């Protein structure tokens, strides 16, 4: 049984009409294999797409549905697909599934891969048809051993059933799919670093342009999509654009549903499929159950370690990209973390920045040198050995490593939580200097 928690306590029963990603989940947490998946309408959307729709029609339907990437960047999926070359002679093109889920406090893709592997395969099959891609790879985080085992079995099931291979469903479309496990580097979540790693190279991001849609894996047109993104595709094709857009709460600028969660010292930590536009307060109080007895909420992150901290007063924020941006951070992966009042923010940020510093590819100077420098300063502050001016240096580093100033988005994501922590909890950082001054040093 998977150890990923998908809580259903006191919740409205999941259905295909309201929970397109999770309605097929088994209560025992075991994988849904091919026979059960097909018995529950599995691969019907793929049959529709491959036998009744053209690639351009599939792309347009996904674009009209407003599906955006679920890996954290939130780029419109249909627009991304539309960047692939139209030249039919370029028949060597690839679809890559980014399953390198290494963002701390993020485990949503793991649930889908371990328990609904055929949903991902069906999503990739339809997407490959839209992109005219003849081969796909699931680039999987190496530590996800159970997910790799489950996916490989599901791929073999699909191949034996004629759902992978040549002339799929009599459509004339050929598609091969492979599971590739990486060596375990956070930077592989960046699509061009993932491509380099798949080719057997060092996992450094590439200069863009050219973009992967023009020059990707092995120099061929390539599209990279996240696991959860691809898993949305069958429901869009099967149920239509209007249905999909209506799943979100009124006022949300993002369409459909999202796997969201809460971890930390909450009463009911877990993962739920919820409509975009739900408030963080509803997620925190109604689903996660609020803080455990004896603990109070101090701060929270809305979507993984690379998003900025927010205060309890921000809990009324609607959870969609533009809604979260209004309070100064990002939706990210949608899996929130609650921090209680017993946690010192300097120690928490030191731990985070150590991770980001270690996972830097070291290609560009701001990231290679700036992140270790932030770790050094935070360690000193945590020990009470900080020097006057250290906090100001940390703020300068947050600026120097910000968006548009580094080769990829690794460093900007790394310093976003640091900048917000200093903004909201500066006295805790100042205390690391005050103790030093108190002894007359």
What would you note in describing this structure?
There is one protein chain. This protein has three domains: 34-245, NADH-ubiquinone oxidoreductase 51kDa subunit (Rossmann fold); 257-340, Ubiquitin-like (UB roll), CATH 3.10.20.600; 345-438, Up-down Bundle (de novo design (two linked rop proteins)), CATH 1.20.1440.230. Helix content is 42%, strand content 11%. It is built from 16 helices and eight strands. The strands form two sheets. It has a four-stranded parallel β-sheet with strand order 3-2-1-4, with helices on both faces. Strands 6-5-8-7 form a four-stranded mixed β-sheet, covered by helices on one side. The radius of gyration is 22 Å and the shape is globular. The relative contact order is 0.12.
């Amino acid at each position: 049984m998977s150890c990923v928690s998908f809580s259903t306590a006191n919740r409205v029963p999941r259905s295909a009409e309201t929970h397109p990603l999770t309605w097929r989940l088994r209560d025992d947490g075991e994988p849904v294999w091919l026979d059960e998946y097909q018995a529950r309408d599995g691969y019907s959307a793929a049959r529709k797409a491959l036998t009744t729709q053209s690639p351009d029609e599939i792309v347009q339907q996904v674009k009209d549905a407003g599906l955006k990437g679920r890996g954290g960047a939130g780029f419109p999926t249909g627009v991304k697909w539309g960047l692939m070359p139209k030249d039919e002679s370029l028949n060597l093109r690839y679809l890559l599934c980014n399953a390198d889920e290494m963002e701390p406090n993020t485990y949503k893709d793991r649930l889908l891969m371990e328990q609904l592997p055929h949903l991902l395969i069906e999503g990739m099959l339809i997407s490959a048809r839209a992109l005219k891609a003849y081969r796909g790879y699931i680039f999987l985080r190496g530590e996800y051993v159970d997910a790799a085992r489950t996916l490989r079995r599901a791929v073999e099931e699909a191949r034996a059933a004629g759902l992978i291979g040549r002339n799929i469903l009599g459509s004339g479309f050929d598609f091969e799919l492979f599971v590739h496990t990486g060596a375990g580097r956070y930077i592989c979540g960046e699509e061009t670093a993932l491509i380099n790693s798949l080719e057997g190279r060092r996992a450094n991001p590439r200069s863009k342009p050219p973009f992967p849609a023009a020059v990707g894996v092995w120099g061929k047109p390539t599209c990279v999509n996240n696991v959860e993104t691809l898993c949305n595709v069958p429901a869009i094709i099967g149920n239509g654009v209007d249905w999909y857009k209506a799943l979100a709460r009124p006022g949300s600028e993002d369409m459909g549903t999202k796997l969201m969660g809460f971890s930390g010292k909450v009463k009911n930590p877990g993962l739920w499929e919820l409509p975009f536009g739900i408030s963080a307060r509803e997620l925190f109080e109604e689903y996660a159950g609020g803080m455990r007895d004896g603990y109070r909420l101090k701060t929270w992150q809305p979507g993984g370690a690379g998003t900025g901290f927010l205060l309890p007063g921000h809990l009324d924020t609607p959870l969609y990209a533009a809604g979260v941006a209004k309070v100064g951070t990002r939706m990210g992966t949608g899996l929130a973390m609650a921090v209680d009042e017993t946690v010192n923010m300097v120690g928490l940020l030191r731990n985070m920045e150590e991770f980001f510093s270690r996972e830097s590819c070291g290609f560009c100077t701001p990231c290679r040198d700036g992140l270790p420098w932030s770790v050094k300063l935070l360690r000193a502050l945590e020990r009470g050995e900080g020097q006057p001016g250290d906090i100001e240096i940390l703020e300068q580093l947050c600026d120097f490593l910000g968006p548009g100033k580094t080769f990829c988005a690794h460093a900007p994501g790394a310093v976003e939580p640091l900048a917000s922590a200093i903004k909201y909890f500066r006295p805790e950082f100042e205390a690391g200097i005050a103790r030093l001054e108190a002894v007359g040093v």
